[in-house]
Structures are given as C-alpha cells and as structure tokens.
Design a protein that fits this description.
The complex is a heterodimer. By secondary structure, chain A is mainly beta. Chain A has strands at about 5, 10-15, 20-25, 30-35, 45-50, 55, 65-70, 75-80, 85-95, 105, 110-114. The chains are: A mainly beta, B mainly beta.
C-alpha cells in the first residue's frame, strides 16, 4: 500500500508568480485536505475535497484554489505569491470526509517565496 | 474565536521520566480533539481522537485524556524515540469540513538517554 506522496519536495518562487503543488492520495482514499504550516507553527487548514468537490474551506483568500481528480489525486494552486506564503504545504488523505476517519499526511512541499 | 494553546512549548525529559503535555482549547462546540506526532521534515502522524469529556485513549507509552476545556497527553517512561513535536488540534462544530482542524503550535519533546 502506497502512502500519501507530494511533489515537488522543495520549490523556490518569486513574489507575484503562480505555483502548483501535487498530492497523490493513499489507495482507497476519496478525501484530500490541504494545510499550510509556517515555521514553528501548527498546520492551518486550507480546504478539503471529497469526490472532486470542495466541501470545506479555511480562512484563506481565493488565490488559493484546488482540484481533485477522478483518481482522487489533488492539486493546490496559489496565484500572486506573497512572501508570507513561504511555508510547508501538507496534503492529507482519508477514506471519507468524516471526523472518525484517520487522516494520513504526506511529507509536504517546502515553498520559499523570495 | 476558536483557539488552541499548548504548553509547555518545549520539554526535555530523561529517559524513563514520565510527564504530561497540556492542550487548552476554546471552541463554540467541539466535534473532536486530535493528537498528532510530527518528526522533523515529516508530516504529522495521527495518534488519537477524543470526542467527549471524560474520554481516555492509550497507545503504548501514551495516554490522552479530555475534559471540557483541555486535554492532556501523558507520556509514561519515555524513550529517546518518543522525541518529536506533539500537536493538538480541534474540529469546531461551526466550521465546514470535518477536517477543518485548528492546530496548536505544538510541544517539542526531547527525551535524553
């Protein structure tokens, strides 16, 4: 059984650019959530996708958007990058969008915005 | 406003020296409280979910408890491999998305051999 994978591992972008981060869910999982973790902080919920539909969103502006594909893999897109977007972006998958399903986190993508 | 506060920020223990980590929370209504472990350079690893006051769960040297305002993670006779950052998170009832979790900043635990 393959765990949650994310690509790329590290990324450096310039302020104002756009970035796409990718996540492959664990086999059999139809729910993906994305989190932003700044250095020394806990993760912050960005949004959750269930069967290709967004079904929950945290306090992030619209320039953070996502997609989930029929194979349940997912993308996080961030437009007009700002310096404060520098963080570790974590993807987590679960067998369903319910609280009693354990989330499995990937290793994250470290984004640096200069 | 939903809020999670963890203490202490950092904790150093001798191997075998038991202790507790604290997570205080303020939410409009609690769907669940979670404990995760995070090793450097890795994503969080799920430990426990607690749903209601009085609930307790155990796993190896770890035991999590929940009251109406806080949760404790008790570590009994820790080993060096227990060294990690322990994160507490809550899922508030007034937020959309079951995985809409509010995390604390974590307690960084170091266990010295």
């Amino acid at each position: 059984e393959t765990g949650v994978t994310q690509s790329p591992t590290h990324l450096i972008k310039t302020r104002g650019q756009q970035v796409t981060l990718r996540c492959s869910s664990q086999s059999g999982h139809n729910t993906v959530s994305w989190y932003q973790q700044a250095l020394g902080q806990g993760p912050q919920f960005i949004f959750q996708y269930y069967r290709e539909e967004e079904n929950g969103r945290g306090n992030f502006p619209p320039r953070f958007s996502g997609l989930q594909f029929p194979n349940y893999s997912s993308e996080l897109n961030v437009n007009a990058l700002e310096l404060d977007d520098s963080a570790l972006y974590l993807c987590a998958s679960s067998p369903g969008p319910f609280l009693d399903y354990e989330q499995y986190f990937g290793p994250g993508t470290r984004l640096t915005v200069t | 406003e939903d809020q999670v506060t963890q203490s202490p920020e950092a904790l150093r223990l001798q191997e075998g020296e038991s202790s507790s980590l604290n997570c205080s929370y303020t939410v409009s209504g609690l769907r669940g409280l979670f404990w995760y472990r995070q090793d450097p350079g890795k994503g969080p690893e799920f430990l426990f979910t607690l749903y209601s006051a009085g609930e307790e769960k155990e796993k190896e040297r770890l035991k999590a408890t929940l009251t109406k305002k806080e949760s404790f993670l008790h570590i009994t006779a820790p080993k060096p491999e227990d060294s990690a950052t322990y994160l507490c998170a809550v899922s508030p009832k007034d937020q959309t998305g079951a995985n809409n979790l509010f995390f604390g900043t974590g307690t960084r635990l170091t266990v010295i051999p």
